[in-house]
């Protein structure tokens, strides 16, 4: 007896699903109303069949549901691949050195380097082979110099770098310094290079341009291309001494730059009243070349033996040039006061400039000159003879310049890079 009540409840639930199925049947009977009364009389087998018929539909739905995850499972296989690319990009960004991550402009400039090298078809700059390696310090330092020269403007920095690389390729500037030979009759005594080491071990590279030594303007500046090659060769010697290719520390973008030189332009007995056309052309060309090809290599420039009356020119420069440029210019009326600007190097500076060392001809280096160079020495002796002034080294350039009282400046004090 206890079993029968147990069976009865079981039968009720079986009939219970029928009403649940009825609503589903009510939707179908809209087109077949006659089947509605037969539904209650439907046999268990029919219900079973109906259930079995419903089951495939459910299974199909389930199958579709199952297939969707399957498809999704294949997509996740692709998604990680995409994610990996994104992650690779993020990881690459994360792997960038701090000096790139912390300077968006520099990072962008570096990312443009492959295209820059492709456009220029040349990769050598100041003895450094530019590399597409963010860890290559010499490359980064050169990019920093070009970026700083353009006040952080990546587009302008890129244009200037491409132009400079193309120019170096055409000029073959490295060869000009290493194997070029220049006319001693034109350039002997006109340019020098010195290296002074301070007590702290730091080296100061100084280039000297003795414009009072020019004897014949037509001869020295008549061939503009030859003059530019000589001037570039002297500059390349100085750049080599900066040892940019050996750099192991990235320049502080907003700080001091240890890879810069000092330039001294001596205008003793040089006339500022008029400009010879040949000198003017040489000046313009030199400024153009040096501004493009040697940015941010100048720490300070001293214009010595400049007439006091010309002081207004330096004041006027501040109107046309950036503060970053004009702050590097230092006019000095008396060249003998130059050494005071370098208290730790007084013993090494030439006596003519307030130091305690020999003159430039005896201590400095210069570019390769023709065999005519020794012929210049005898001409200097008569000028050394008058020792009454007590400063033989200083009298030399004075006497040289007296031979040509019409000697004029090859560069105005507004020169920024030459």
Automatic annotation (TrEMBL):
**Which cofactor names does the annotation list?**
heme b
Where mainly located? Answer: cytoplasm
> What's the protein's topology in the membrane?
Peripheral membrane protein
Q: Where in the cell is it found?
A: Cytoplasm; Endoplasmic reticulum membrane; Microsome membrane
Among CDD domains, the record links this protein to:
SEC14
Q: Which residues form the CRAL-TRIO domain?
A: 175-361
- What organism is this sequence from? Aspergillus chevalieri
Basic and acidic residues: bias regions: 27-39, 83-94, 373-409
Q: Where is this region: Disordered?
A: 1-98, 356-418
Q: Name one GO molecular function term.
A: metal ion binding
UniProt lists compositionally biased (Low complexity) regions at 1-26
Q: Which UniProt keywords apply?
A: Cytoplasm, Endoplasmic reticulum, Heme, Iron, Lipid transport, Membrane, Metal-binding, Microsome, Transport
Q: Report the protein name in the record.
A: Phosphatidylinositol transfer protein SFH5
Domain of life according to the entry: Eukaryota
A GO CC annotation given for this chain: endoplasmic reticulum membrane
